[in-house]
């Protein structure tokens, strides 16, 4: 849902899944070269932005333990305000629904929606390219959420091509534990030479014959990842669960034959602290139409 009225806008900030993640090389500067498909899902945080005359960025409900200098929505608002030479300010409210540390891109999505929403409210008329350049200063995944479509992603995340994906449901489980991305990518046992694929190669079998190269390392570092994968395999025999991104959330696509009522009942019996949800894939970010593609 996107609503705007009298200097106030409310945006749904969608999470995303990495349908696969291949590490195909490494640059001389140490950055890893990736291939992945990012799938938007309808698990959303709710962001409300209200313009105010005071020359401040005000976060009404800060996340405990996250100081303003580390808060991506505050940093995004300040970055755009400075770039656009805006004299007024903004009051920010964010209702977190996407678990923090789950590897689902919630923080990046929130920051992207902050840039999109304030670009609209402050009448800056920046296009997707300009907003993406700003977003990249804050995080590698933010340009994807500004881009707004499901995407085939390459390089270090900067090469984004729109991809058309069949609409489907997914089961997503977050086993509470978080994994530092840096720990995964610094591991000496991480696969770094996966053969490259093409978009057509992916679309020929989008839900099989692909993997997450971070998963083996993550299972060793965080046993809960394997436990969550095993939970899905027992609940949905024959499914192909895998980890999303650098973890620790895991997921599987649901088929037409899936008994949703039975699955929802099983989700009530997840281990204590785990979060599980049935989600629907989205074709584009709900805020997509707020900015120009030119």
Could you characterize what this model shows?
- There is one protein chain.
- This protein has a single domain (1-294), classed as 2-Layer Sandwich (Ribosomal Protein S5, domain 2).
- With 294 residues, the chain is an alpha+beta fold.
- Helix content is 28%, strand content 28%.
- It is built from 9 helices and 11 strands.
- The chain is globular.
- Strand 1 (2-5) and strand 2 form a beta hairpin.
- The longest helix has 16 residues, at 106-121.
- 42% of the residues are buried.
- The two termini are 24 Å apart.
- Helix 1 (72-83) packs parallel to helix 2 and helix 7 (215-221) crosses helix 8.
SSE blueprint and pairings:
Elements: E1 2-5, E2 8-26, E3 32-52, E4 57-59, H1 72-83, E5 89-95, H2 106-121, H3 128-136, H4 142-147, E6 151-155, E7 159-162, E8 169-174, H5 181-185, H6 199-204, H7 215-221, H8 223-235, E9 242-243, E10 250-254, H9 260-267, E11 275-280
Measured distance between first and last alpha carbons: 24 Å
Helix content range of the residues, please? 25-40%
Radius of gyration, CA atoms, in whole angstroms: 19 Å
CATH names the topology as: Ribosomal Protein S5, domain 2
Order of helices and strands: EEEEHEHHHEEEHHHHEEHE
CATH second-level architecture? 2-Layer Sandwich
Q: Strand count, sense and closure of the main sheet?
A: 7 strands, mixed
Return the domain count.
1
How many helical stretches?
Answer: 9
Outline: globular
């Amino acid at each position: 849902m996107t609503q705007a009225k009298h200097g106030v806008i409310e945006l749904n900030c969608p999470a995303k899944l990495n349908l696969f993640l291949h590490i195909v090389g490494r640059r001389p500067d140490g950055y890893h070269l990736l291939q992945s498909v990012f799938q938007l899902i309808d698990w959303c945080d709710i962001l409300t932005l209200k313009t105010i005359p005071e020359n401040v960025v005000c976060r009404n409900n800060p996340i405990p333990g996250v100081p303003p200098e580390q808060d991506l929505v505050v940093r995004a608002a300040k970055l755009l305000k400075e770039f656009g030479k805006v004299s007024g300010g903004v009051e920010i409210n964010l209702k977190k629904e996407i678990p923090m540390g789950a590897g689902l891109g919630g923080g990046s999505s929130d920051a992207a929606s902050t840039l999109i929403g304030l670009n609209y409210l402050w009448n800056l008329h920046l296009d997707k390219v300009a907003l993406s350049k700003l977003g990249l200063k804050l995080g590698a995944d933010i340009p994807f959420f500004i881009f707004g479509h499901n995407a085939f992603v390459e390089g270090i995340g900067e090469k984004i091509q729109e991809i058309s994906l069949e609409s489907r449901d997914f089961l997503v489980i977050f086993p509470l534990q978080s994994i530092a991305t840096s720990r995964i990518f610094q591991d000496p046992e991480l696969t770094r030479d996966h053969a490259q694929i093409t978009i057509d190669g992916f679309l020929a079998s989008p839900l099989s014959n692909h993997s997450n190269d971070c998963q083996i390392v993550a299972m060793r570092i965080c046993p809960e990842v394997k436990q969550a994968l095993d939970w899905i395999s027992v609940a949905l025999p024959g499914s192909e669960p895998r980890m999303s991104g650098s973890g620790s959330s895991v997921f599987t696509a649901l088929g037409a034959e899936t008994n949703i009522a039975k699955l929802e009942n099983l989700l009530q019996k997840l281990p204590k602290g785990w979060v599980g949800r049935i989600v629907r894939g989205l074709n584009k970010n709900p805020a997509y139409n707020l900015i120009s593609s030119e």
